[in-house]
Amino acid sequence: NIRKITKQKEVIPFMSKSTLTTGSVYQTKYYGNIEIVDRGNKYDSYLVRFINTDTRKEFRKDQIISGYIRDPFAKRVCGVACTGDIKTKGKYKAYYAVWHDMINRCYNPNNKRYDSYKNTEVENRWLVFKNFYEDCPEIEGFDKELFESGDLVLDKDLKQRFYPKKIYSKNTCTWVSKAVNNKVQDHQQKM
User: Fold this and answer.
1) Which terminus of the chain, N or C, has less C-beta within 10 A?
2) Rounded to 5 degrees, what angle do the CA atoms 143, 146, 150 make?
3) Distance separating alpha carbons of residues 143 and 172, to the nearest angstrom
């Protein structure tokens, strides 16, 4: 269960029958400490502040007590990126897979393609999945039907083919078919 932290930083087990106190700091299971900021707008809910990111979000009392509340802005993807306040399943799943793979290739040294991406980075805006998702339809070449059928891939090379350092961003990427992407990659490897 959630634990209350006193001013002396002593961790005291938090009893589920207790009331949550405004201004008190509690520990979550995976997202560090939270502070109870105020009562929430919904029944039996509270506004909390995640201390590590200063994110404020409303949760039910039972969620807070369990300790299983999620900070949408904690950098949990390769230590550099976060989801933002958006789901990653359902209609978002395919977009999340593209985004997560992009982050993983660029920032995870254990990724088998990491060495090929050592001169590539992701713009700050896209280090938040929600921003990437919102930008996808505005990226050149986007076609929702082709994307959802798996026939489109995100390409960073076409618009930046003469630049040694590449950046994933709304203005530097384009959606292309897998066949076009393979031709671009083959050409890049020959250079």
Assistant:
1) C
2) 130
3) 17
